[in-house]
């Protein structure tokens, strides 16, 4: 039976912190594949607030090229309107009916899980791997999630990744690119070249 991880994000731009946590996700859960899912263009925001999806897709493709366990899907880019995790998981359930699916989320998203569309059904259909942010603790989990989380941790349907998140964000990287002050080692060189060629984040 295949173990498949799903890793959604804006990836604007994708950086080495994303790749690090994607590798930890694959290693610690024992995944055959981690599928990166760049978000589509926001349907409710002005287009200029985010790099167009086609650029973010290509940057993600370049960044993951050297890791054989990494794959890419435009599933969240091609759907019209709002994209919900619940609907994304249904698509992969149909595509891989026999696989065990895992969804990667940050601890900040875990704290809001009870506000997600059909979250109680979602957590029966996909296992969850949590990447902890510095300073976050499971003690901060809202009471709406307590009973479910306690059971899910015991049964193994939720796993807390041991690898800490890198303390870098796409927001910081965009600011550094604007000021032409980006430090080495934050984004893959193939992505840096693409950004330069296409004049992104100026």
Jot down its keywords.
6 strands, 202 residues, 9 helices, alpha/beta
What does this 3D model show about the protein?
The chain has 202 residues and is of the alpha/beta class. It contains nine helices and six strands, in the order E-H-E-H-E-H-H-E-H-H-E-H-E-H-H. It has helices at residues 16-29, 53-64, 75-78, 85-95, 107-110, 119-125, 143-155, 170-178, 189-198; strands spanning 3-9, 33-38, 70-72, 100-106, 127-131, 158-160. The protein is globular, with a radius of gyration of 17 Å. The longest helix has 14 residues, at 16-29. Helix 2 packs antiparallel against helix 9. Strand 2 (33-38), helix 2 (53-64) and strand 3 form a beta-alpha-beta unit. Helix content is 42%, strand content 15%. A six-stranded parallel β-sheet has the order 3-2-1-4-5-6, with helices on both faces.
The fraction of residues assigned to DSSP E strands is: 15-25%
| DSSP, total strands | 6
Helix and strand element order: EHEHEHHEHHEHEHH
Side-by-side strand order of the widest sheet: 3-2-1-4-5-6
Structural class: alpha/beta
Largest sheet: 6 strands, parallel
Which consecutive residue ranges, at least 5 long each, have pLDDT under 50? none
Number of helices: 9
For the CA atoms, what is the radius of gyration? 17 Å
User: What share of residues is helical?
Assistant: 40-55%
What's the overall geometry? globular
End-to-end C-alpha gap: 46 Å
Mean pLDDT: 94
Write a brief caption for the model.
This protein is an alpha/beta fold and 202 residues long. The protein has helices spanning 16-29, 53-64, 75-78, 85-95, 107-110, 119-125, 143-155, 170-178, 189-198; strands at residues 3-9, 33-38, 70-72, 100-106, 127-131, 158-160.
């Amino acid at each position: 039976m295949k173990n498949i991880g799903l890793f959604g994000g804006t990836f604007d731009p994708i950086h080495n912190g994303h790749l690090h946590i994607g590798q930890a996700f694959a290693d610690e859960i024992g995944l055959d594949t981690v599928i990166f899912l760049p978000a589509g263009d926001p349907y409710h925001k002005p287009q200029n607030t985010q790099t167009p999806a086609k650029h973010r897709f290509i940057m993600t493709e370049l960044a993951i090229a050297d890791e054989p366990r990494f794959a890419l899907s435009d599933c969240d880019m091609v759907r019209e309107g709002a994209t919900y995790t619940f609907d994304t998981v249904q698509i992969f359930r149909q595509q891989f009916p026999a696989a065990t699916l895992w969804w990667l989320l940050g601890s900040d998203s875990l704290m809001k899980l009870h506000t997600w569309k059909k979250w109680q059904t979602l957590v029966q259909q996909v296992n969850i791997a949590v990447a902890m942010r510095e300073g976050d603790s499971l003690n901060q989990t809202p009471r709406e999630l307590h009973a479910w989380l306690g059971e899910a941790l015991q049964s193994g349907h939720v796993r807390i990744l041991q690898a800490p998140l890198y303390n870098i964000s796409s927001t910081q990287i965009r600011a550094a690119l604007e000021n032409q002050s980006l430090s080495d080692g934050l984004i893959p060189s193939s992505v840096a070249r693409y950004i330069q060629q296409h004049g992104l984040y100026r």
